[in-house]
């Protein structure tokens, strides 16, 4: 990641605090996912305009390396870090492979992204993330998991699943879309909102009714003469539980209808993040830490046992060494040498005395 791209300077958000404490509230990460063409980028554009109107402009991160033009000013752009066309050439990849690889390369700089977000966390209330057109690039890649889990561990993070409402008016397509949403929900376990987009084309009422009334959906399926009708019927029973806890908002990225309801849902989802996800996450972290500590203690114990065995080997070696050393010390070679030195010294002393007496007597004789 090289730079933060140009974006309008933020006006400071109103001082927000958690109800429980006076600590400043962390910005909310809104991760926008959805099928290609469902309207993710347009949705971010609309949300950005809405938040500017509320005097709380968001901080926007674009994670789509293949997008040509963005209809909003973004603060961090994956395209500044990875050149998607270059990735295609260099790794000889097709468009999808290059998007996955670009995202993988970008995820290697996640610590830099996090430190940029940390620096800006007092200035913004929302961090928005636009993701690649093809949903599976993000949801089924290691990089998508790394990015989502890192954000989820640091900030209140909400997954927003954009659904193309007109395209989902067919019950079978609706079911496929819902199955995809469930799979993402259970994969990330983060608070989840389904945005039924493009309500300017078709009202989202039918979708809400299908979710609330199982029999209405069944009768819609009956009219479809498809080989998957039976499968859809059974699946709708399974999804009943999923629907009951689901936040769904009708939205139009074109007209801006549903913005207020969307942010009501975000507040509700933040509450869930604090009281459910965060608690679960902390428990999981504690368990992980305990597992690591247990492993560390086991390793330490094993090391000590190994060291004890080594110690006995070392002790044995030391005894043998000491024996040799002691033998050397008891050896009387040194004493002999000392005696010899003393003898030599005595001899020299004697000869010097003789020399002196001789010369002294000669000198005295000459003087006289
Ligand atoms: N009528 C209508 N069109 C929309 C809406 N949201 C997006 N679109 C259109 O859907 C197409 C795909 O949108 P885009 O944001 O690029 O989708 P993405 O691939 O999910 O990012 C574009 O032509 C948009 O103009 C909406 O709420 N209403
Ligand atoms: Mg897009």
Automatic annotation (TrEMBL):
Localization terms from the record: Cytoplasm; Nucleus
GO cellular component term of the entry, any: nucleus
Alphabetically ordered keywords of this record: Coiled coil, Cytoplasm, GTP-binding, Hydrolase, Nucleotide-binding, Nucleus
EC identifiers of the protein: 3.6.5.-
Main location: cytoplasm
Annotated region described as Disordered, given as residue ranges: 1-22, 318-368
UniProt-recorded Gene Ontology molecular function terms: GTP binding; GTPase activity
Keyword Repeat among UniProt keywords: no
Keyword Coiled coil in annotation: yes
Coiled coil location: 286-313
Origin superkingdom: Eukaryota
Comp. bias intervals (Polar residues): 359-368
Summary of the function given for this chain in its UniProt record: Small GTPase required for proper nuclear import of RNA polymerase II (RNAPII). May act at an RNAP assembly step prior to nuclear import.
Quaternary structure note: Binds to RNA polymerase II.
Family from the record: Belongs to the GPN-loop GTPase family.
Protein name: GPN-loop GTPase
């Amino acid at each position: 990641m090289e730079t933060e791209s140009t974006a309008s300077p933020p006006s400071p958000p109103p001082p927000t605090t958690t109800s429980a404490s006076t600590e400043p509230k962390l910005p909310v990460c809104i991760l926008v996912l959805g099928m290609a063409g469902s309207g993710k980028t347009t949705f971010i554009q609309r949300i950005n305009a809405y938040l500017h109107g509320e005097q709380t402009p968001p901080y926007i991160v674009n994670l789509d390396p293949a997008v040509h033009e963005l209809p909003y000013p973004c603060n961090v752009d994956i395209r500044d870090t990875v050149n998607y066309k270059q990735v295609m050439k260099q790794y000889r990849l097709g468009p999808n492979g290059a998007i996955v690889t670009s995202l993988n390369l970008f995820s290697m700089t996640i610590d830099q992204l996090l430190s940029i977000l940390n620096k800006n966390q007092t200035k913004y209330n929302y961090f928005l993330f636009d993701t690649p057109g093809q949903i599976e690039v993000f949801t089924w890649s290691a990089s998508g998991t790394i990015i989502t889990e890192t954000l989820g561990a640091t900030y209140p993070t909400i997954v927003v699943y954009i659904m193309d409402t007109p395209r989902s008016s067919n019950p079978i397509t609706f079911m496929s879309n819902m199955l995809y949403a469930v799979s993402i929900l259970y994969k990330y376990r983060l608070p989840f909102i389904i945005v039924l987009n493009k309500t300017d084309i078709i009202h989202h009422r039918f979708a809400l009714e299908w979710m609330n009334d199982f029999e209405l959906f069944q009768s819609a399926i009956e009219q479809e003469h498809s080989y998957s009708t039976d499968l859809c019927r059974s699946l709708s029973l399974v999804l009943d539980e999923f629907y009951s806890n689901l936040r769904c908002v009708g939205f139009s990225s074109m007209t801006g209808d549903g913005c207020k309801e969307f942010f009501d849902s975000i507040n509700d989802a933040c509450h869930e993040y604090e009281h459910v996800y965060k608690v679960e996450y902390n428990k999981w972290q504690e368990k992980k830490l305990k597992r690591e500590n247990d492993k560390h203690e086991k390793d330490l114990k094993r090391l000590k046992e190994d060291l004890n065995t080594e110690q006995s080997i070392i002790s044995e070696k030391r005894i043998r060494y000491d024996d040799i050393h002691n033998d050397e010390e008891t050896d009387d070679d040194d004493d002999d040498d000392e005696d010899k030195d003393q003898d030599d010294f005595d001899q020299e002393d004697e000869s010097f005395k003789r020399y002196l007496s001789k010369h002294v007597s000669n000198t005295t004789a000459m003087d006289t």
